[in-house]
TrEMBL record:
BP terms from Gene Ontology: coenzyme A biosynthetic process
Protein species of origin: Triticum aestivum (Wheat)
Protein name: DNA/pantothenate metabolism flavoprotein C-terminal domain-containing protein
DNA/pantothenate metabolism flavoprotein C-terminal domain span: 167-298
Protein family according to the UniProt entry: Belongs to the PPC synthetase family.
Gene Ontology cellular component annotations, sorted alphabetically: cytoplasm; nucleus
GO MF annotations, alphabetized: phosphopantothenate--cysteine ligase activity
Amino acid sequence: MVGAEDPETFFETAPPLRDADAVRTKLQEFNARNSIISAGGVDRRPTVCVTSGGTTVPLEQRCVRYIDNFSSGHRGAASTEYFLKAGYAVIFLHRRGSCQPYCRFLPDDSFLKFLDVNEESKVQVAESHQTAVKESIWDYCKVGYGGGSLLKLQFTTIFEYLQLLRMVATSVSTVGQRGMFYLAAAVSDFYVPWDSMAKHKIQSAGGPPEMRLSQVPKMLAVLRDQWAPLAFCVSFKLETNSDILVQKADMALNKYKMNIVVANLLATYKEQVIIVTNGARNTVRRRNSDEDLEEQIIKLLAQKHSKYICGSQMDATRV
Ligand code: PMT
């Protein structure tokens, strides 16, 4: 493995995003939809960028094989629903094919389980799932798409993810204090730089391949210092060893100047998290199997974000 590259080199050598112009347009439209023009100027709904799912690291430019990350995207999808409910406009930056807001309860194996054929040979939702589907459609239309407050952007590779994150972070909707980053995606730490990657499928006849992995630059630092210095930043810390979890979360909080770090362990991340802020550690636990842990997390974050916005406004009036 070689040392961490600087962010500039990472972006200069990454394959360019194929649909960059289309994404830019979508961000502008989203921004306009979620701005309110009043006598005092342009006001914006609080906006959060939720990152979700795992990034891949391709091993070949014409990619057949890649290194993947375990994340299902459930946390990001559930959190998006609760952010929308709390009045946020949400940019849901997610892995293609990962879990989606309002679709979390659809069966994994076959969506046919949800369907029946009635006496007139028409397809309908099975009686047993009517309530769940109706509620999901209702929320999806009202808060999500119908309201124009949910923008979905997709990535697969680490190259796509970081380029999209940069575009979102420098777009108008997330740069000020009303912008929040909720970085729940499982982001690759190591990758094969594009220019040293095999062009074609690696041949087994050549024996076991040897490749050097480089370190992906930690973009939290760039996000905080350059892209969106005023935004409210929430990063996640995932560990497998409970002895180092909080210490690593504290380190991330200080080193990357995050507002909050949500610390979780692989073995228990669906049941509890520790919310680490400057000077406080708050354990949030799922109270029963019907409850989403994300409901409590988002409630807490929305409160802290709101205080942060008020604090910044008071500072501005004092100046
Ligand atoms: O999707 P689910 O299956 O529901 O799982 C949810 C989750 C366990 C993936 C989620 O709760 C979680 O912990 N996500 C963060 C996982 C992770 O990448 O942790 P990390 O310790 O490797 O990175 C810490 C932070 O640094 C992350 O917020 C990441 O966005 C950021 N990072 C990581 C690598 C990198 N090169 N640059 C970064 O900025």
